[in-house]
TrEMBL record:
Organism from which the protein derives: [Actinomadura] parvosata subsp. kistnae
SnoaL-like domain span: 10-111
Alphabetized InterPro entries for the sequence: NTF2-like_dom_sf, SnoaL-like
Protein name, as recorded: SnoaL-like domain-containing protein
Amino acid sequence: MNDRHVALISAFYDALGRADFAAMERCYHPEVSFGDPIFQEVEGRDRVMRMWRIQLGVRDGLKSEYRDVTADDFTGTAHWTSRYTFHSTGREVVNEIDSLFRFEDDLIVRHHDDFDFRRWSKMALGRPHGLLFGWTPMWRKTIRDRATQQLDEMRPS
């Protein structure tokens, strides 16, 4: 167990819960990459932080809880629960997320979140879209394309 890396993951999630972007950014390596079922692959600290600003912007009243943080000298894991109101639909979402981390220079250089896309789309989008289309590759591509477009349009802060 690497206590510094456990503390780094905990600091990241504490900052996420406060929407403290500066503190979140300090946890990331300049060459960080992020991936999840929606954004897939985002490269570089500036772009990853823009992605977090978008995500927190479409989630009203985000509350997050994390647990099961483990880390060694090279990798780490955590489980977190994200509770929020999805801005576009006003629907309540409780998303269970498993995170994987890689470290370099005692910073997070790789962050990958995994969650059930179909379950998320049913909660966030409701019926009929989330229920009927949430599992289809075409619908996933539509959601991913919108997220990428938002990321590309957002100005660096």
